[in-house]
Structure formats: C-alpha cells, structure tokens
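Supplementary Methods S3. Complex input for the FE3-S4 cluster-bound model.
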Amino acid sequence: MNLQKSASPLMDEQLAFAERVADIIKATYVEPPKACVETYGCQQNVSDSEHIKGMLLKMGYLLTENSEEADFVLFNTCAVREHAEARVYGNLGALKHLKRRRPGMIIAICGCMVQQQSVADRIKKSYPYVDILFGTHVTYRLPEFIYNLLMGKKRVFNIETDQKEIVEGGPVSRDGDLKGWLPIMYGCNNFCTYCIVPYVRGRERSRAPEEIIAEAREMVAMGFKEITLLGQNVNSYGKGEAHGVNFAKLIRMINDIEGDFKIRFMTSHPKDCTEELLDTMAECKKVCHQLHLPMQSGSNRILKIMNRHYDIERYLHLIDYAREKMPDITLTSDIIVGFPGETYDDFCETVKVIKRVGFTSLFTFIYSKREGTPAAIMEDPISREEKGKWFTELLKAQEEISRKGYGEMVGKTYRVLCDGEGRVPGRMSGRTDGNVVIEFEADASAYGRYFLVRVNELTNVLCGTIID
Ligand code: SAH
Ligand code: SF4
Ligand code: F3S
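Predicted complex, serialized as structure tokens:
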C-alpha cells in the first residue's frame, strides 16, 4: 500500500471517516472482518477497485477473494455490454443466500452499471439485501457510506454527479507487484453512439501531471517493472488544462524517471492519436512498442454513424506511420460486429481492413444495445443469429492472421519480462515489449526479471529458450 503525493481536503474527510469505522470495527469484531471486492469491466474499474481496497485496509478489513467468508462484499460493476450487467444480476442473486447465512454481512455495489438511474432503482426495489450502492463520481466516499450504515442508517444509495474535481490522495492496495495501473484521466467526452461510458463516467477530467509523476515514481521505487497509463482516451490528456502538458509530453516526463521499467498506455482513440505521439513512442526508450488502437469498423459509413470522427484512410495512415517509425510495433484493436444498420458489405470492409493491417490480436464484440445511447433507437434489422455468423467469420479471419504473426516470431529473439508460471510445470511465462506471451524453461526465481528469449516453436503458445 502507498500514499500518493497530496491529499485533498475531501480525502482528508474520508480518511477521518475511515478512522472512525476502524474504531467501530475494533470494538465490534474479535478477529478483523474480511472484505471481498469483485471487479467487472475494464482496467479503469480494476484500478478503482485497488483504491477501494486501499481504503478497506485503512478501515481495518482484511482482504479476501472468497465472498463465502467475507463480512463485506462489494461488486464494482461494468455497463458496457448487456452481458456484463447480466452477470452482476446473477451473482447478486447468489449473495442473497449468503446473507441469509451471515446476517451481519454488508453487501455493496458500485461502478458504471449502478450509475444508471434505472439500475439503481431496480436494485433498490428488487434487491433489498443490498446495503450500499454508490456511483462512479463518489467512489472515494466509501468510508462515509460504511460509517453511516454502521451508525444505524438502513441503506445508503448515492449516485450523485456533482463531484467534478478529481479527489487525490487516497490509499491504494495494488493487486500485483510487477505491473501496475496508473490512471491519468477519468471520464469520456466522445459519445460514440453505441457507448454508455460517457453517461456513466461523466466528462473527461485529467489528473495533474505532478500527481501522475509522483505516483509513477512511487511505483518505480516499489519495484514495479511496468506502468500502464489508463484513460478512455489517453490522447486527449490535458486538453483544456492550464498546465499545457499533453499526452506526448506526459509520456516524456514519465520516460525521464530513472529506473528499469516500461511504459504502456490505453486506450488511444484514432481521432486524437497524433504523429507527435507516435514519434514520442519511437523516441522514448521506456515506452513499449505496442499500440491498442480501437478501429470498431472498417466501413466509413458505419464509422460515421458511430460518431468516431475518423475514416479508415486516416486509421490506416496512423498504422503505416506507426510501423514506419517502429517496425517492431505490435498492434491490437477493438471491433464491433452488427452495429445497427451494418450490412454484410460493411462487415466485409472490416474483414478487408483487418487483413490489410495484420493485428496481433483483436477484441471483438457483438453490438449490445445500451439504453439512453443514440444507437439504441436506430433501426437494427439484422438478426442476432446472422450477427453471430459474421462474428465467427471475423474470428476465423483474425485467428489465421494472429497465427501467422506468431509464426513469424519463431527463430527470433525477444526481451521478455517474466511475470508468472507457464502452462506446464518447469516453465515460466513472460511478455515481450509487444505484450506477446512467451513461455520458457525456468524456475520461480525468474519472476520479475528480464530475459532475452529465443523463440523455438509455436504450439498453442510460443515457447522459447533463455539465451541471456
Ligand atoms: N474508450 C475506449 C473503449 C472503451 S469500451 C475506446 O474508445 O477505444 C471497450 C470496447 O467495448 C470499445 O472499444 C468497443 O469496441 C466495445 N463496446 C463499447 N460499447 C459497446 C456496445 N454497446 N456493444 C458492443 N461493444 C461495445
Ligand atoms: Fe466509449 Fe467512444 Fe468514449 Fe471509448 S471513446 S469510452 S468507445 S464513447
Ligand atoms: Fe465497463 Fe465502466 Fe469500463 S462501463 S468498460 S467498467 S468504464
């Protein structure tokens, strides 16, 4: 756990609540109670959960991954697709029985899904055993919510959005010790017509550069070897701020921090991804040559209706420029299949472009209707079954491309960071700069170290030998 550089008065207030909760807990429990945080959704949520866990530790809870033994269970939820929400409702249902067995337990839910009024209302009405519900703008107020509950308040529901400033200075309990998340901004202003994120996360807000640098320094001092900068659209970092530090500049500042570590970032929006950024990536030694650049569709007609503000020509220009500057760059992307009004011809454009680019891997999604977004009321005549067929066709095409790409790595040598065990005993696993997994013979002492590994073969994973 670590404390960031400055604490805002709002955070001081919460830290005082946390102390009061800790006193109540000490007076109530013989053994420290256990808290379980289950996280759904993207890295932004994973990072928020790390802050929530930091606060829970401050309040005197121990952390557990097993909700069965927890005195406090929190779901940090995602709203991006229907499937994500369905899982939460299912798992919330299961908690009902758990609470019946353990009447004293506290059940809390937070995150993007419950930021929607309709969801908050549904949970209030149909899930009476949920004690605390809070939205994405008030996450930092968890100690106050727990305090109020412990002081006799029946249920705490809060999805206010008035808090616009970022509240700095809370404790963090990071999940790993090698690779860490570093949020640089929150929210999104882009309103892609299919996407719920701007509605549940609010407007774009950037953290001050000195806060980010202080946190990055701390992470390096703690031994982290990889820092991933997080934001829904990192390229618009600092827009409208007086400090004048844009994303490329911020990267340079982090690159200047002394130490043996690597920098990654996500997500880059193609409309704001600049040549300056790609030049910066190429020039900064610590920045991994890996770019996740969500394309969403290969059809200009669909990109326009999606409100993405780029066309495929611009997208391909960025890809070509990135490859010219960094011939070893690994490229990945997100694709939505079956956006309302998409035809098979539009879909074929997407397949054509993915073949042209040759992504290392793709994150593919079937369009999911999100109430309140413009696309939700667009005509959507293609059946789910048909979309499923297109989806399979896309997966097959990409599988071939990925396999070819991995195949080309055989015989070459890569610097990898060993970050875990391999799939079979005696092997450890690592990732290249491009974030590709390679397994090699080594024991547990290899964890956290860099090696030069020569790739020998491609089975269901790339396997290699340490040469240095
Ligand atoms: N801010 C990031 C993406 C965040 S959401 C960006 O703009 O790239 C991650 C991915 O989920 C998106 O890139 C998109 O491909 C997918 N997604 C978002 N809304 C969706 C929806 N309604 N249905 C299906 N996929 C969706
Ligand atoms: Fe959603 Fe678009 Fe914002 Fe990404 S950029 S979070 S897809 S609205
Ligand atoms: Fe999901 Fe919220 Fe992330 S909707 S994808 S957890 S920003």
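The chain has 13 helices and 21 strands. The mean pLDDT is 95.
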